[in-house]
């Protein structure tokens, strides 16, 4: 068997199998992420089965949001090192979810003010007072990054339809929930109990006026509360307890906590 017998795929064939462009494969070669095992006398790339398997792994990690510059280290690392890298990647993704939710909430509140029946818009001073000095950044980033998502569109629709009374009612529910969570924690209400289910449902009621919320989404939001210190202001030292209540309820309803999807 010659060395070329081991190299089974041209760059065009490899690109078709991996469903990427030949330009992408050349880029991966340039940055030494996926270097073909062989080249012809005419300097054409030839990819082996091992090369193709590495290409598949690259696509998997890229799909998980890992940067190209980190994928080579991830693929070549030991099992324990890969686990540490992936745990860090998971934290980064949770941070992104947290930031996205914060931006959407800010924009939803802004849209509410813009669509009140009086037809008046909020002044710059009002916006800064409501969102803080970073509100222009939130507004623009949310529009650019998530303006074409279904959740964003649904948020806009739901909030635009809210009256002043609806907004006041939603704020009151949020206030009642915060006290309910504090009381439940202080009385050591057990996760999975009937009382705990009432707390979990009350939390859902604080979010549902602004966005469609399933139990799976509720689990991911609760995990975000724990991962992001910015939510300490809203939930204080009760974030981990709230997560335990929500996960117990989700598990009781048949949700696999090791594989929760935003759906």
From TrEMBL:
Protein's recorded name: MerR family transcriptional regulator
Entry's Gene Ontology molecular function annotations: DNA binding; DNA-binding transcription factor activity
Pfam families in alphabetical order: MerR, TipAS
Domain called HTH merR-type: residue spans: 8-77
InterPro entries the UniProt entry points to: DNA-bd_dom_put_sf (IPR009061), MerR-type_HTH_dom (IPR000551), MerR_fam (IPR047057), TipA-like_antibiotic-bd (IPR036244), TipAS_dom (IPR012925)
Repeat recorded as keyword: no
Record keywords: Activator, DNA-binding, Transcription, Transcription regulation
């Amino acid at each position: 068997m010659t060395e070329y017998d081991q190299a089974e795929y041209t760059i065009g064939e490899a690109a078709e199998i991996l469903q990427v462009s030949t330009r992408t494969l050349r880029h991966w070669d340039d940055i030494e992420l996926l270097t073909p095992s062989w080249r012809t006398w005419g300097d054409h790339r030839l990819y082996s089965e091992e090369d193709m398997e590495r290409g598949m792994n690259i696509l998997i990690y890229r799909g998980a949001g890992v940067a190209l510059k980190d994928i080579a280290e991830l693929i070549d690392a030991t099992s324990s090192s890969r686990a540490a890298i992936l745990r860090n990647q998971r934290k980064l993704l949770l941070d992104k979810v947290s930031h996205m939710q914060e931006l959407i909430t800010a924009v939803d509140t802004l849209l509410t003010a813009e669509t009140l029946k009086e037809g008046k818009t909020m002044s710059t001073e009002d916006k800064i007072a409501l969102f803080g000095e970073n509100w222009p950044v939130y507004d623009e980033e949310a529009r650019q990054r998530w303006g074409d998502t279904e959740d964003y569109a649904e948020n806009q629709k739901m909030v635009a339809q809210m009256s002043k009374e609806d907004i006041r009612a939603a704020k009151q529910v949020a206030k009642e929930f915060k006290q309910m969570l504090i009381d439940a924690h202080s009385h050591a209400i057990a996760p999975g109990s009937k009382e705990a289910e009432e707390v979990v449902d009350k939390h859902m009621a604080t979010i549902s006026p602004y966005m469609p919320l399933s139990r799976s989404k509720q689990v991911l939001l609760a995990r975000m509360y724990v991962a992001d210190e910015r939510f300490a202001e809203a939930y204080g030292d009760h974030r981990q307890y709230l997560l335990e209540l929500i996960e117990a309820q989700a598990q009781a309803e048949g949700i696999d906590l090791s594989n929760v999807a935003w759906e």
